[in-house]
Write a structure and sequence with these properties.
Layout: E1 4-6, E2 33-35, E3 47-50, E4 59-64, E5 68-69, E6 75-77, E7 92-93, E8 108-113, E9 116-121, E10 125-127, E11 141-143, E12 163-167, E13 172-176, E14 200-202, E15 212-213, E16 219-221, E17 224-226, E18 228-232, E19 236-238, H1 253-260, E20 265-270, E21 273-274, E22 282-289, H2 295-309, E23 318-329, H3 336-339, E24 345-353, E25 358-369, E26 380-384, E27 391-396, H4 402-405, E28 416-420, H5 426-438, H6 441-451, H7 461-465, E29 470-472, E30 484-489, E31 497-498, E32 500-504, E33 507-508, E34 519-520, H8 524-535, H9 545-551
Helix pairs in contact: 5-8, 5-9, 8-9
Length: 568
């Protein structure tokens, strides 16, 4: 495997080994594999280095000494060949002041003078020293935190709006207030941040992550449920288990059906993305569910969906968030850590549902969306329709930059798009409403209390026939057979309850099927009737009937005695 070698000091960076069958009839033991070792990183004058490992994919960070700087990359990476990808950076003097430079405060400038040097505080810093000669060296230059530009001549906005400014030498430095970003602080960050740690983060080229289970195991997408997904670093995820290796996006619906290979694919930007050897680059995956620990992260998603759809009743059940940061486009001519200086990409795909309605939220970073694929490199944003697996194409290589510049939710939030992928079948609709009905704990407790006030059912049909408080009514259970007979009390009793009892082969049915709950002469009865239609509908083959009977259970005959016969 790329980046790995045989274990053992004598193997150096060998990647293959021959094992032999010996006299004993056994194979010699293989050495096994380990990451290649680049050994200690190179050294450079006037700099220090920090690193935790020298194995493949490890990084070493260099820092120039005070008074020195570099224009080269300060991070180098151990490559799959077992060598560091770059030389150590060359640290040179900051200015012409060479003697005693380290004595100057970092907020002071050093100037050569005859016989020594002089430290002068930079513009925007107060000299708290009694002298600025080399003896005191201006070591007490302190930021006075005041901007001599109160009207915002150099900064676009004043301090109490979206920017505040600080005097630096040379000129002015404009900083964005918290919650704002950009050169002119004119837009809020479009990508969401999460407090919860990601389930997984990965970087590389053409990497496919392991399958990830979806909480609750029922994620609706255009009329079907899914319980697993697989992210791909090339700008998409698939809502099913088999991996999808295609590197380039399908730019029309015909190609999409071919490329997705019977996968449900959701792609904020599907193309050959590279995150190798780029500091801070990669894909991080968050899976959020209706747990207390995820509440704050889910609330920010929920608020956006409610705002953009005007559905105040939308309550997040599960959300999947994929965030690509500091990525670039794969190039055969330039390594990613060089290309990202001119072409970068950060974006986010959030797939969210309340158990019935499902939306895709695509966010494209304003500051990092400068990719320029070659003319022959396919690029596509879109998502799969089930059925024939054709695609809804949102953008291709000719217009994908519109993803950053536009929005379908608000002109003030450029780079944010919301897509509705809800399709509710009759089966799904009944199931969801049945499950909501089943969550009614108050109703569940109420029906159990009513059972104590109802006429009890006999345990056997022969006793029922002798109980004059009941009459036979086989229409109570529409799917009865010749072996099943149902009875109900003649009238509502003083507690407004009409008890019902069904017998199969002469024995009381206590559980579904062939069980039936009581009827109540109050508003709760209409709620129970609706719940019965939803949970026991023919559309879903009555497979959720057990949820209805958990709310409105039939009598179990435990309170019946022969003395009840003939009670009126």
């Amino acid at each position: 495997m790329q980046g790995y070698r045989l274990k053992g000091k004598n193997h150096n960076n060998l990647t293959s080994e021959v094992i032999r069958c010996v006299d004993s009839g056994l194979w010699t033991s293989p050495s096994g594999c380990e990451k290649k070792d680049c050994r200690d990183p190179p050294i450079s004058g006037h700099s220090s280095r920090k690193y935790n490992s020298t194995a493949y994919e490890s990084e070493a960070i260099f820092q120039c000494e005070s008074g020195y700087h570099t224009e080269h990359n300060t991070t180098i990476t151990c490559t799959s060949s077992g060598h560091w990808d770059m030389h150590a950076p060359n640290c040179t003097d900051i200015d012409e002041c060479t003697t005693g430079q380290h004595n100057c405060h970092r907020n002071a400038n050093c100037t050569n003078i005859i016989g020594g040097f002089k430290c002068i505080c930079k513009n925007g810093y107060d000299d708290m020293a009694t002298s600025n000669t080399y003896e005191s060296a201006g070591r007490d230059c302190q930021d006075h935190n005041e901007c001599n530009d109160p009207k915002g001549t150099h900064c676009k906005y004043s301090r109490n709006q979206t920017q505040w400014c600080t005097n630096l030498d040379p000129g002015y430095y404009c900083r964005c207030n918290p919650g704002w970003k950009g050169t002119n602080c004119d837009t809020k960050p479009v990508m969401l941040d999460f407090e919860k740690a990601p389930e997984v983060c990965a970087h590389g080229d053409n990497e496919i992550l392991d399958p990830i289970n979806i909480p609750n195991g029922r994620f609706p997408y255009l009329g079907k449920y899914f319980d697993v997904f697989r992210p791909n670093l090339n700008g998409f995820l698939a809502l099913n288990y088999p991996p999808l290796y295609e590197r380039y996006g399908a730019e029309n619906s015909t190609l999409w059906e071919k490329y997705v290979d019977n996968h449900i694919v959701i792609a904020p930007l599907w193309t050959n993305i590279d995150t190798r050897n780029i500091t801070g680059a990669g894909l991080c995956v968050h899976v959020l569910s209706n747990k207390t620990s995820d509440a704050k992260d889910m609330k920010q998603i929920e608020d956006l969906v409610q705002q953009y759809t005007n559905r105040s009743d939308f309550s997040v059940d599960v959300a999947i968030a994929l965030t690509w940061r500091n990525a670039t486009i794969h190039s055969p001519y330039m390594p990613g850590y060089e290309l990202i200086k001119q072409q970068n990409l950060s974006m986010q795909a959030i797939v969210v549902t309340d158990g019935l309605y499902t939306y895709l939220l695509f966010n494209y970073n304003q500051e990092q969306f400068s990719i320029k694929p070659d003319n022959y490199t396919p690029v596509a944003a879109g998502y799969t329709y089930p059925g024939n697996f054709s695609g809804k194409i949102l953008a291709d290589r000719s217009n994908f930059t519109n993803l950053k510049n536009g929005s379908n939710v608000s002109p003030a939030v450029k780079g944010r798009w919301l897509h509705n992928v809800t399709y509710i079948t009759d089966d799904m609709w009944d199931e969801v409403r049945c499950r909501k009905f089943h969550e009614n704990q108050t109703l569940k407790e109420w029906t159990r209390q009513q059972l104590k006030n109802s006429y009890p059912c006999p345990c056997y049909e022969q006793d029922m026939k002798e109980d004059y408080a009941f009459k036979q009514n086989d229409s109570l259970w529409s799917n009865r057979d010749q072996y099943t007979h149902c009875y109900e009390s003649w009238f509502f009793n003083s507690h407004d309850i009409k008890q019902r009892c069904c017998f199969r082969f002469g024995e009381l049915r206590k559980e579904y099927p062939f069980a039936i709950g009581a009827e109540f002469n109050n508003p709760n009865n209409s709620i129970l009737e609706a719940g019965f239609r939803q949970c026991c509908s023919a559309v879903n083959s009555q497979r959720y009937c057990h949820l209805y009977y958990d709310v409105n259970p039939p009598d179990d005959c435990s309170s019946w005695s022969p003395d009840d016969e003939g009670v009126v």
